[in-house]
Amino acid sequence: MEASFSEMRNELQSRDALWRRIQMECKQLHTELLKIREYKDMQEIKIKHQSSCVQLTEQLENKNTELLLLAQSQEHQQEELNKIRNHVYREEHYHRSEQERMKTEISDLTEELHQKEITIATIMEKASLLERQLKMELEIKEKLLATQQLLDFQYKVIKSENTHLKEMV
User: Fold this and answer.
1) 83-108: b or e for each residue (b if 16 or more CB lie within 10 Å)?
2) Rounded distance, CA 114 to CA 117, Å?
3) 60, burial (CB in 10 Å: exposed 0-12, middle 13-18, buried 19+)
4) Are 11 and 83 spatial neighbours (Cβ–Cβ below 8 Å)?
5) Are 13 and 88 contacting, i.e. CB atoms less than 8 angstroms apart?
6) How large is the average pLDDT for residues 58-86?
7) What is the rounded CA–CA span in Å between residue 134 and residue 142?
8) Where do the domains of the chain lie?
9) pLDDT 10s digits, 110-167
């Protein structure tokens, strides 16, 4: 995108330079036209030859035609220059809008990521708490199991003694 802007700017500068040259040529042609008119007036006074007058008049008409063509070309170049400027302006405006949209999107995504990090941290804390609770419950159940096994063993011993005593009686 930067390259197209650069190309457009170069084209704009090139056309601007061309436009200035055309203006300079118009001024030079106008100066020449004035000189030709002065020359024509002097020739008419000094020389009464019709052919010289006709020739100067033709040259003057040719110069006038050239001036008109240059003026038309200058107008066309100015229109092209304005079109390019407008296009560059629109592209720059679009580029700025796109940058703002991307900044907003990045900001939103950063906020969403921050919220997810908070959620993950909360879940990790809860998981750690549940793990501790499960370990404590496991320890309690292991102690209860050990106690029950001891009681079972004692019950069997007492039962065995009881059976032995019944046999002896």
Assistant:
1) ebeeebeeeeeeeeeeeeeeeeeeee
2) 5
3) middle
4) no
5) no
6) 85
7) 12
8) 3-168
9) 999 999 999 999 999 999 999 999 999 999 999 999 999 999 999 999 999 999 888 8
Q: How does pLDDT run across 86-118, given as a tens digit for each residue? A: 998 998 999 999 999 999 999 999 999 999 999
Task: Round to whole Å and give the CA distance between 72 and 36.
Answer: 22
Contact 15, 81 (CB under 8 A): yes
CA angle 83, 6, 16 (to 5 degrees): 45
Cα separation, 110 vs 117, in Å, equals 10
Distance, CA of 165 to CA of 49 (rounded, Å): 169
Tokens (6 digits) for 73:
């070309």
- Expressed in percent and rounded to 5, the helix, strand and coil fractions of the chain are 95, 0, 5
